[in-house]
Amino acid sequence: MTHITFKTSLIAAAILLAGCSSDDNNSNSEQTIQPVSAVAIHTVASDYTSGQQVLILDSDTYQITNTKIALTDIKTDYTIKTYQDDLYHIGRYTIDTIEKFTAEDMENSAYSFSTQQAGEEASGNPYDIVFVNEEKAFVIRYGSDKVLIINPSATDESDFITGSIDISAYNAGTATNPTAADGLINDGKLYIVMQRMENWVPQTAYVAVFDVQTGEEIETNANSEDNLKGIPLNGINPQQDSLTAYADNLYITSNAAYSTTDISTSKIEKISLDNYALTEVLNASDIENNTANVLSETIIVNDEQGYFYASSGWPAVSNLYQFNPSTGLITQADVAATVMNAEGIADIALDTENRLWVSVSSDAAPGVDVYSVEDNSLLENRITTELPPVRVEFFY
Amino acid sequence: MNINQALSCPANCLLLAGSLLISSNFVFADNQIDDVIEIKGEKTTFKTNYTLLQRQDFLNQGVNLSDILQKQAGIQIRQVGGLGNQVSVSIRGSTDKQVQFYIDGQLINSGQFGSFDLNQLPLDQIQSIEISKNQAVGTGSTPIGGVIKINTFDPNKPQTRLSGAVGSFDLAEFSALKSIQLGNHQMSINLSYLTTANNYPYKVPAPLYNPQTAATENLRNNDYQKLNAYFNDSFVLDDHKIKASFQFIEQNKNLPSYRNNSDKNQASLDTYTRRVNVSDDWLIGFDLLEQVSLEAYLESKGEVYQDKFISTRQERHDYQTDTQAINLSALFNLDEVTAVPYFKVFYSEYESQSFLGKQGLGCSGLGSCDIISEQTQYHLGSRFEYQNSDWSAHLLLNQLWDENSNRINQQTDYAFEPKLNSENYFTFDSSLNYQIHPAQQLSFSLARGVRIPALFERYGDRGMLKGNDDLQPEKSSTLSFNYLFKAQNWQLNSSIYQTDQENAIVAIFNSSGVGSYQNISASKILGFELMAQYALSNKLDLDFNMTLLDSNTESNISSFNKKMLPGIYHQQYQTRLNYQLNQNIKLSLDVSHDKDLYFSRANIDKQRAKRTVVDLNAHYQLRQWKISLQALNLFDQNYQDLANRPAMGRAFKLSFTLEEINL
Questions:
Q1: pLDDT tens-digit profile of A91-135?
Q2: B652 min Cα distance to partner chain A (Å)
Q3: Which CATH architecture has domain B3-661?
Q4: The pLDDT value given to residue A33
Q5: CA distance A292 to A311
Q6: Are the Cβ atoms of A97 and B557 closer than 8 angstroms?
Q7: Cβ of B510 and A344 within 8 Å?
Q8: Residue A85 has pLDDT above 90, yes or no
Q9: Residue A94 distance to chain B (closest CA, Å)
Q10: Contact by Cβ (8 Å): A269, A283
Q11: Which of B478, B523, B527, B477 shows the shortest CA–CA distance to B504?
């Protein structure tokens, strides 16, 4: 009874807060917040040559109900995305496919379509699908200067790719694409964050804003000194899952250049969705005694509560922090005890029931820990997975 | 340093000059195999875990060395995408890098990457092939997998050989070999050329102009050409038996784009190898000292990789590897015991230069860096052999000192830390053989092998693959028993063995996607090999090989713990039926069935891979002329290659040979 009451109150709180899955970056008001019906956990072999698979989990009992979904036994460069009760299996570099699994038949794909357009020689390298609705979504491609517009409900290959958005204006120097890393829809606008790599060196990162309906880029007037319409960031090298929106702000987490000694360029910044003003929330050097950890992925629960994790070293040891998004103050360190256990975090995700799902890449016991954001208490200790988990997504 | 520079180096000149003064070439298999029996044209030794294939047994049996080796029990060959592409060799469940590949006395395995190019020499340039499982051939460190040793062509009679072939997928090859006697010099020269389009049908996942519809197309830009030149001079000077040879190999391999089969793709890898070998056997015959041998090797290998998979990208990468090796040994004969103490020095320098690196770009912690790496190895050891009428035994002890370094070879702001490392390793192998009866032999062997980390594994590329200063060598302990029985019409050779391996080196990626080579697991391999040969009649004989492997891993990484080893078939069955139709025509049918292969180290495969391949060969001989027709993969079976892509299907080859040997 207590459990039910607790869950009900969590759901109510979630709806009231208009929260949303952190990984389901469609933080737009068009979506109805629903309780989680199931959880998809993407797991990948740590040698990156021994395959990957998706597990389906009962979100109430935390029991794995289905294994070996979308299994591959060699290729590993995949990621997943859910939309409502469908699972999308995204093949990235040189795979370039999107495979759809429906709730009716999780073991056999409804389709597998290429994300390459005719004549495209280089791998587009799809990173993310950002959904507008069941029949329209954008595919953010790391290796292309075109964002695809697709119909996720297409049944025929010719209906799958319906258009594209040109983002080549953001190509850095001699680069042939702006290395777009993440996308998010909020209030009818598509936000795309780009690393802007040139010869494997990240240049000034940008967030570009597009009208979801027309695909036209919106002039943000963020910088009068460049000839770009987007918003230049101070943080360097934002990666997948670097965008999250809460209330009137878009939060961007940047990772800093690889092997940098200046960790202060790894930042959490926020952009006002009203006027596109950029503000720094915190950077990695704000973390007490931190000399090497760089930031990855941020989750905002409310105005005063958020989470991010920071990692460094080999094997990576991660630290999950709770912080105040309004002030940038860190309020608790090692929330998931991964520092104490010398474990790495590959992903964090918040569901609509205010549970924080932490994907832990431990050698001995890889799996997912589930925390309550009410008091950071552990709701489920280590849902063990055969392969290390790298991403958690929710079905609604 | 190129080979011309290397040859002009004073130290090398001294060594080369020295090689003319003292001598000996301990090719144990060639010179010291006492028990060689002949079975239907093949020569197999009674030595434990050892096979010797003579030239007449493999010429006309295949296009290249891998065709010959894959018919041997316990050896697995897995290839990618047709001739000229990567070939992986496994001996008794080993990895490719755990196998040592020698050409004459020179170790060919790359110090930088640990791998080797198996098919660089055409069969015409090979005198014999030695295969050793779980132990060394002659001297040197004991490998984990085994040794494949090529002894280059060195005839003792004048001869002329012309051969050529045409086949499927625009295969054409031609070879001309001439060996003459001038005074006391036996000189040989060979030129050979091979070309193929390798354009076999392949199901393209996302064709360039219609990526939504997978389609079967002929594979584009998979062409391969290989030009080989070989010169050899063997002569006797007083007490010295001297052999000097030179090889030049040019390989041009285009690289296909398997995912879209692009017609704009022009990616290629060109390899230029020059190798000079000089060996001197000095037959001293002084008291206990019978021989002194000196071998010297110089090799220069240049590789040019053109990254033109995308028509707008024109990136060139150059790799240069220069290797020098000197082997010095002596043979002491103490009645029933021979002792061969030896000292070997091996030096290799690897240098990479990329399109970006030349501009001071690329090396960023994300992109890889251009580097220079060096490796110097010193081997000190001795081989002891004992033989009497019923018993024979051997013991090989080897101490290896390895020094290596890695430094930057480009301008960069990246904080590149040079590395220097020094380690030493001890290995041994031993065997004991008992001749129970003239027709029966029992053998036992024990070996402790090592595979030292390749420099790439130790230092990474400083991009997303970081180095590991704590990387330990792979080690193995192998215990094997062999039993051989020979009757009038049949022979049976069986082995049972167990190999315990530790410190398997595998690239592991952390939660941030950064990789590093780690020692991840131990493993146990239990194997059984059976080789049977049965002469059903004067015209019909049957060979049957069976290999059964069981493997089990032990790892701190839970997903790799208690698994079967990936990348090897755990069951192999091979049958060859030879039928001598008449004096001129011989037919042979090869059937191989391999099963239980995991691609995934975590064994998550939906099903274990298997393959059944049937090859048919017909040979016609009329005096000096031989004509052969081969049908490979006769029933066009689909199976997955090394990279889990569909392998080449059915192929035909028609070859001719004109051979004249002056007796």
A1: 999 999 999 999 999 999 999 999 999 999 999 999 999 999 999
A2: 31
A3: Beta Barrel (2.40)
A4: 64
A5: 8
A6: no
A7: yes
A8: yes
A9: 7
A10: no
A11: B523
